[in-house]
UniProtKB/TrEMBL annotation:
Pfam families: Ku (PF02735). Residues 272-284 have a biased composition (Acidic residues). One of its GO terms (molecular function) is double-stranded DNA binding. GO terms for biological process: DNA recombination; double-strand break repair via nonhomologous end joining. Keywords: DNA damage, DNA recombination, DNA repair, DNA-binding. The keyword DNA damage applies. It comes from Pseudarthrobacter niigatensis. Residues 316-367 have a biased composition (Low complexity). This is Non-homologous end joining protein Ku. InterPro entries: DNA_bd_Ku70/Ku80, Prok_Ku, SPOC-like_C_dom_sf.
């Protein structure tokens, strides 16, 4: 970081030399303007409306206009203002932090000790810690006298510039002056919704989605060129936005609570039902081949029919667990039927061979008897 200002904190008669650094920065992706016809960069020129000439920045002065009269103020005249030349951060009050209106906070700056010994710096920091208060200060920065709050963050003094009271607008909305009736049930449900969404604030868990998606768009454009498909890039139609649905307030609260309370339970129930369905498929799977195999052979079909009929009577009088057990029993018995069918088929095959041998022997005996009369 680079120091933008040097000065000293005036803490009574104690002088605390410090360097001032911007504590925040803009993370937005920088874009510039171009001509959509040819991509040419758009440049802004400081052109005088009287003579029409382009004026250098060094030749530009500031002016104030009122009632048709213009007062031009040179740089030297502006620098002559006493407050502009002050490099002192004057402590004027120590106040409880809860008395500061957050809307008044403008910009934050880190203060670094700017002396060989940081003892005065540490002393002021300890004083703020011990009293649990915030120092209200006045200082001048960039041609403006400012009001500020001096507080501690991670053992570092932080100066937060504040808006002046007349810079904060007063809110006046006639619609809020109407008599609005809120029922006790609506208040209870809204409080329950707040409680369901309660959490400790963790800034790191939030993301600037627009900047992330802008970077995604730039990278897609660099890769695809003019053939860029925004719907493919983002998964939604370009320019698509949420369409608000006007619904009853109580219904909206109920839906919100149901989503927060029942979301996890519903997901768990769905997962359990899917697992059970998968388990059922695995258990019932082996029984199908057994029934198809038994249907190909008559003896095995009759055996499977008898056994299946016996097993099918049981599930009607039992629970879903008994059904799974019955399916396993049917599968094992069908497998046994398959084995029986194989043996039966083997027996039939042996019987056929034996019968064929006997039939082949009979004609030979008839031939022998035919030769005797001859």
């Amino acid at each position: 970081m680079r120091a933008i200002w040097k000065g000293a904190i005036a803490f009574g008669l104690v002088n605390v030399p410090v360097k001032v650094y911007s504590a925040t920065e803009d993370h937005d992706i920088s874009l510039h303007q171009v001509h959509n016809a040819d991509g040419g960069r758009i440049r802004y020129q400081r052109r005088c409306e009287v003579c029409g000439e382009v004026v250098d920045y060094s030749d530009i002065e500031k002016a104030f206009e009122e009632d048709g009269r213009t007062v031009v103020l040179s740089k030297d005249e502006l620098k002559s203002i006493p407050a502009e030349n002050s490099h002192e951060i004057e402590v004027v009050q120590f106040v409880p932090s809860e008395q500061l209106e957050p809307m008044m906070f403008e910009k934050s700056y880190y203060l670094e000790p700017d002396s060989k010994s940081p003892k005065a710096y540490v002393l002021l920091r300890r004083a703020l810690e011990d009293t649990d208060r915030v120092a209200i200060v006045q200082f001048a920065l960039r041609e403006k006298t400012r009001l500020g709050a001096l507080r501690i963050k991670d053992d570092v003094l932080v100066l937060q510039s504040l808006l002046w009271p007349d810079e904060v607008r007063q809110a006046s909305f006639p619609s809020l002056e109407a008599d609005i009736r809120i029922s006790a049930q609506e208040r209870d449900m809204s409080a329950a919704l707040v409680e369901s969404m309660a959490a400790d604030f963790e800034p790191g868990s939030f993301t600037d989605e627009y900047q992330v998606q802008l970077r995604q768009l730039i990278e897609a454009k660099l890769e695809q060129g003019e053939s860029l498909d925004t719907e493919e890039t983002f998964g939604v139609e370009a320019g698509e936005g949420g369409k608000g649905e006007v619904i009853d307030l109580m219904e909206a609260l109920k839906r919100s609570l149901d989503r927060k309370r029942g979301g996890g339970e519903a997901a768990s129930a769905d997962g359990a039902s899917d697992d059970e369905a998968d388990a059922g498929d695995e258990e019932a799977g082996p029984a199908k081949p057994a029934r198809r195999t038994s249907g190909t052979k008559a003896a095995a079909s009759r055996t499977a029919a008898v056994k299946t009929g016996t097993d099918d009577a049981k599930p009607a009088r039992s629970s879903a667990k008994s059904t799974s057990a019955s399916a396993k029993s049917t599968a094992s018995k069908s497998a046994a039927a398959k084995s029986t069918a194989s043996k039966s088929a083997g027996g039939k095959s042996t019987g056929t061979k034996t019968s064929g041998t006997k039939d082949a022997a009979k004609p030979a005996a008839k031939t022998t008897r035919a030769r005797k009369p001859a």
